[in-house]
Recover the amino acids of this structure.
């Protein structure tokens, strides 16, 4: 078993596990954190799962864990791994079940003091406009044919349906449409589950939040993102719902025979994979891209609901109640990108599981208005605590295949959170801080309590210190809606 | 381990249960009941679903191996629960082999407390043959 002493500190915030620490490792592993976070990696199975990730075929440079790491299944959460397209494998367990779970940030022209008197009404209107909870049905209904169009076209489908603006698409990772989606590779069951849920939040750790921009760290970048101190903003955190869960489930099961077929040796069956350039690998990618696009549309449709709620409550009461899109990022995804490896620019399949792309200035895939500063990296904190807007860097491209953290990261199991935290008390505590709360259940609230998570500010300090993203702004919650 | 042959074990982010059975069929039934308790979110809600038992379905599955069959079985119950808005609590395992399963399942509504399980994972899944029967640890993505 890998020990703490097997790691060596290669930088202030980077610990490296050499390739010879375990026989089956193909590359070293690198873990980002401060000393306390590094110690925490040994409290659960993070290190074992990170080491397992290094065994995947075609992996280059390192398997990486961002500082919000924790035990997951297959990959650790916060895991990043990049595989050569010619000899490497793609792994559905390296993306996860909630494909393209991600965050969208909307900005406004409203000062937070102005919104105070309307916050209760606004939260109630958002709760009505954005369906949440277990099995929640979405805002729009689509036919089978429409669903195929939706998952192929992504946010462009929403634009045609009048549920998006052209500038929303420009401010979405991949412009809201990952190429290569093939609805022919998606099961009938995934489509059946996906059809009624377009425009729904779901349950678990998904949420919708009204925030105030509390502090600006980088005025120039904040200005480029349209952010200013005192501004009201909205975060939407959700993914591809039953559609994505089923796509992953189908492929984790369906690829089990491929492990034998291609003679792969894997330390965990959840790491099941197939060569990228194989019928099985291509089929998974085609289906996964459909789920990625489903999630982009899901957040887009919810954003249209948020705009409706703002108009309904605030029209006529203030000068400008409109919301513009700052950005939308994916947290669980596999994508083809070009990166430098041993002095050569090569095409890789980058798996990010609980990690955010964090490209720096100049990258061609970024919207024109962000190209000079880098992309926004959206890092929601745990419920009721701060969230951060960061900006991607060149250093992230050097160190982490252009990746950064995605949140705070859990430290406490859900069962322990339910036993030690009383949901009703937490509700009262948040309301005592002036936060308006709407939640499906007290138990669900307890599972997502801040005490069950790392301190997001600590995680962000590591990311900032390591240079894999830089701080731009901090948000504090005014209202929280939880499924 | 409780009288229904399962126990919840620690997992930082998701839910994990260890499950046992004297036979493969009993272990599969216990795993399904263990999952139902997690979905219902509270023993009283599981009892509420068990008491109503308004829905009955026959499930027939084939799979690549016993572990894949276990994941497929629990995944089938998750899917039917989402579609029917219910939790299944009674499992008549008509036939279970390492690659085939036939069962009649009954369940009812526990709507007030339902908790979301996204999927059943293969994380470190290994059905172990013990002196007392079979044992496995199952991680659910929530």
């Amino acid at each position: 078993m890998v020990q703490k002493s097997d790691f060596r500190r290669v930088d202030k915030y980077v610990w490296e596990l050499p390739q010879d620490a375990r026989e089956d490792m193909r590359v070293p592993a690198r873990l980002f954190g401060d000393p306390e976070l590094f110690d925490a990696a040994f409290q659960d199975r993070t290190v074992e799962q990170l080491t397992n990730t290094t065994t995947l075929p075609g992996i280059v440079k390192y398997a990486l864990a961002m500082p919000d790491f924790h035990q997951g299944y297959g990959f650790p959460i916060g895991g990043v791994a990049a595989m050569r397209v010619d000899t490497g494998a793609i792994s559905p367990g390296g993306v996860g079940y909630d494909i393209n779970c991600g965050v969208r940030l909307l900005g406004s022209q409203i000062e937070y003091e102005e919104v105070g008197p309307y916050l209760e009404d606004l939260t109630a209107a958002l709760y009505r406009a954005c369906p949440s909870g277990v099995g929640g049905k979405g805002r729009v209904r689509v036919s089978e044919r429409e669903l195929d169009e939706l998952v192929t076209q992504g946010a462009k489908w929403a634009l045609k349906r009048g549920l998006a603006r052209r500038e929303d698409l420009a401010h979405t990772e991949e412009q809201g449409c990952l190429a290569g989606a093939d609805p022919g590779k998606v099961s009938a069951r995934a489509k059946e589950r996906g059809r009624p849920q377009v425009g729904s939040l779901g349950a678990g750790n998904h949420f919708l939040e009204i925030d105030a921009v509390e502090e600006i760290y980088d005025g120039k970048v904040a200005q480029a993102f349209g952010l200013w101190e005192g501004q009201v903003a909205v975060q939407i955190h959700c993914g591809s719902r039953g559609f994505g869960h089923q796509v992953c489930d189908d492929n984790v099961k369906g690829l089990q025979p491929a492990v034998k077929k291609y003679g792969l040796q894997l330390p965990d069956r959840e790491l099941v994979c197939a060569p990228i350039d194989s019928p099985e690998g291509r089929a998974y990618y085609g289906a996964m891209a459909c789920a990625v696009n489903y999630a982009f549309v899901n957040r887009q449709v919810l954003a249209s609901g948020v705009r409706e709620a703002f108009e309904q409550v605030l029209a006529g009461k203030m000068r400008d109640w409109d919301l513009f899109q700052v950005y939308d990022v994916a947290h669980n995804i596999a994508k083809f990108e070009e990166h430098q490896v041993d002095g050569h620019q090569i095409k890789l399949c980058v798996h990010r599981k609980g990690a955010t792309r964090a490209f720096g200035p100049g990258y061609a895939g970024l919207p024109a208005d962000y190209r000079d500063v880098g992309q926004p990296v959206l890092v929601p904190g745990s419920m009721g605590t701060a969230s951060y807007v960061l900006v991607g860097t060149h250093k992230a491209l050097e160190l982490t295949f252009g990746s950064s953290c995605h949140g705070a990261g859990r430290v406490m199991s859900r069962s322990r959170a339910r036993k030690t935290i009383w949901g009703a008390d937490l509700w009262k505590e948040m309301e005592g801080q002036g936060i308006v709360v709407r939640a499906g259940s007290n138990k669900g609230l307890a599972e997502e309590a801040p005490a069950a998570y790392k301190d997001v500010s600590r995680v962000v300090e590591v990311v900032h210190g390591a240079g894999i993203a830089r701080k731009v702004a901090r948000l504090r919650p005014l209202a929280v809606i939880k499924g | 381990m409780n009288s229904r042959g399962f126990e919840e074990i620690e997992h930082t982010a998701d839910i994990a249960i260890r499950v046992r059975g004297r036979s493969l069929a009993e272990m599969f039934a216990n795993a399904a009941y263990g999952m139902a308790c997690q979905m219902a979110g509270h023993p009283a809600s599981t009892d509420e679903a068990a008491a109503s038992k308004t829905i009955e379905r026959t499930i027939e599955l084939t799979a690549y191996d016993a572990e894949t069959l276990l994941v497929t079985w629990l995944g089938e119950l998750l899917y039917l629960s989402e579609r029917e808005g219910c939790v299944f609590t009674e499992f008549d395992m008509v036939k279970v082999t390492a690659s085939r399963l036939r069962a009649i399942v009954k369940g009812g509504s526990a709507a007030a407390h339902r908790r979301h399980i996204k999927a059943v994972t293969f994380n470190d899944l290994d059905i172990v043959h013990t002196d007392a029967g079979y044992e496995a640890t199952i991680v659910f993505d929530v």
